[in-house]
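Before a computer can learn anything about folding, someone has to put a protein's shape into writing. The three-dimensional part falls to structure tokens, numbers that each stand for a local backbone shape. The protein below has been through that process, and both of its lines are reproduced in full.
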Amino acid sequence: MKIRDTIRRAGRSLRQAKARTLLTSLAIGVGAFTITLAFAAGEGGRQYAADIVSANTNERELYVQMKPDDSADPTAPKEYSDDPTMQYGGGFSVKLLGQKDIEKLEAIANVDDVTPYYNVTAKYITAPNQKKYTIGVETFQPAVKLEYAAGGGITKKGTVVIPDSLREALGFDSAQSAIGKTVTIAVNQGSQDVLQQAEVLRNLEVVGVNEPSSLAVADGSGSVRIDRETARELYEIINQGTTNEQAYMAATVVAKDGVDVASVKKAINAAGNYDAQTAEDAMSFLFQFINVLQGILLGFGALAVLTSIFGIINTQYISVLERTQQIGLMKALGMRRRDVGRLFRYEAAWVGFLGGAIGAGMAVVVGAVANPYISDALKLDDTNLLIFQPVAVGGVIMGLMVVSVLAGILPARKAAKLDPIEALRTE
């Protein structure tokens, strides 16, 4: 008997028991639905995380800081060192990078640029005839993709990009009207031990107004971004005469074009007591969370499929019992044992295909409907967190067909072994 004819006959047999076939397929469909959504959520989550990495960092960029103290007892007395440190409560301290460390990093092969992290703590920011506001200050990074309401990025010294929320607070009528205007940043000079620190002002030209971005880790809604040279000057003013003068919490190292970033990371870690991280390393927690979430969803889907396996076996056994005389007649007319077994395996494959197609199809429909609501609820703009790949959807359906065939092996063997004479005698 030809395979094509066997497949057609299997389909006709299932149509004769529509209700039973549909119920068994729906049981498989629950697992297909969950597994398809799990793959879509995992793919969407990974793409979203990758977009965050590319939007906030340069792929050739590494974040370098001193290795933390790995002492077994962090509260135990430590030997004094002249190396700059930043002290926290509870005796906790963090070593800082010194100027010699910056020079050592610059000397490493395949390093294109080294930028210390200028931690600028502004006293306030203001505009002419406006109130003073406390604000976070960051160094402008061209690799970070900002969404501009007006203007653009920083290309010269003495310029600043402000968030649209601050633009409104400073009294500028529109984002465009703020471009070219002057804002003033105030910082305190030197040691905090004195009762009254000297106040230093810097006038900066607004060259850009950015809007919050769904892909930005820090969307700029509470920070201004200033040019690198101004950030360095303000940092030196703030730390003038303190133990942290010419000392930095971290530094950004950019590898040369065409160079393997992992090899540069290895060279940095080998050059001293440094801890270098790539952009993907820094965002690894996102990928771990996504993988765990996907694993949980796949686990639920696997449980549903496992439950449906018993339904397939039960359905096939009932089918064998109901069609015992029919099987005996087919064998009496010359149908071989392997053809009988193949017929029932194909029936199981049809059940798996129908269940997989129904479940995966429902998942795609639900995902297409739910994506806009999810994006709106999480404020992700046009980003979709459920991304369905045809290969994954097809793989789920094919996988469930294989599972169904395996589940139908025992009933198929029972049908193949039936004695035709005994089968024809069955009432």
Summary: The longest strand covers residues 198-211. The first helix runs from residue 3 to 15. The mean pLDDT is 82.
